[in-house]
Every structure is written in C-alpha cells, then in structure tokens.
C-alpha cells in the first residue's frame, strides 16, 4: 500500500480501503465503468468535493464490495443497483489497480479485514459571500426640491414680503422691504 498526491492538496491513500459514503442530494459524486481488460467495475471519474471525493475514492479504483457483499463478478447494472438501493449510507470496499496487481503477483487474496478504514474529510467551507456595495443610487431617498441658494433667498424674501403686506399694508411693506 502506497500513497501519492491526491486532489485537494492532501496525500491520496492507496491500497485496499473501506469507504463510508453518505448519499447527498446530488448523489455520491462518482461514475464507474466496466473495464474490458480486467474483471470488475472501476471508478471512471469523481466530482471534486463530492461525497466520494471526501471519502477518499480515487479514479481507477476497483469496487470490491458494497455493504459487505462481494461484487467482483457482478455486472455493471448489478453493482449500480446495490449502490442505489437500501440505506443512504454505503460501505464500499475499493482497491487501486497498482495494489491489486501487486497482490496478484504474490498470489494474495483480497481480505476485507486488511482494509484501511477511511474517515471522510470535512467538506470545504463555502466561499465567502461577496461584500455588498452600498446602494449608490438615490432610489431610496425621498424626492427633494433642490434649489440654489439664491433661489432660496428669493423664496424667503417673497414669503416675508407677503407677511408684511398682510400686517402693514402695501406702502409700508415696500419701504420695509427696501431696508433688507
């Protein structure tokens, strides 16, 4: 059993491994295929950060057992059905091709008791939410009548003049207005 560089920056553990996969909404996150040159079902691809990826499954692994049941002689369809049926949690025994070839060269049988029990990695944290820019539009401000300072003075003077006319009369108001 050896280890090599894996996805996600950690070391990928190779050898005979017992993986625990808990089905997510999008499934387990791997595809398998029948290898015509070798007996069994092999992992074709693994979605990054999927349940299978976090559990330690590697591209090229051969599926040996599903929930303790030997699947080495099963068809592709039979293995898929065993993985899909039953509980949401699956115990899948896998072996990489290199380790399998080494064992065959020594005439060793695959013994599930020799498997490395893998502990799934934690999923990566979600990406940070983008910082929302404050709304620079004036949509949230009430409509204001913006006038120049000169227009405001004239408005005030006009109101004062109207008040003076009401209280003093026209002639006196004109005289008082001119004194401003």
UniProtKB/TrEMBL annotation:
This protein's GO CC annotations: apical plasma membrane
Region (Disordered): 116-143
Residues covered by the PDZ domain: 18-98
Cellular localisation: Cell membrane
InterPro entries, sorted: NHER (IPR051067), PDZ (IPR001478), PDZ_6 (IPR041489), PDZ_sf (IPR036034)
Name recorded for this polypeptide: PDZ domain-containing protein
Species: Amphimedon queenslandica (Sponge)
Keyword vocabulary terms for this entry: Cell membrane, Membrane, Repeat
GO biological process: protein localization to plasma membrane
One Pfam family linked to the record: PDZ_6
MF GO annotations: protein-membrane adaptor activity
Domain of life: Eukaryota
Keyword Cell membrane: yes
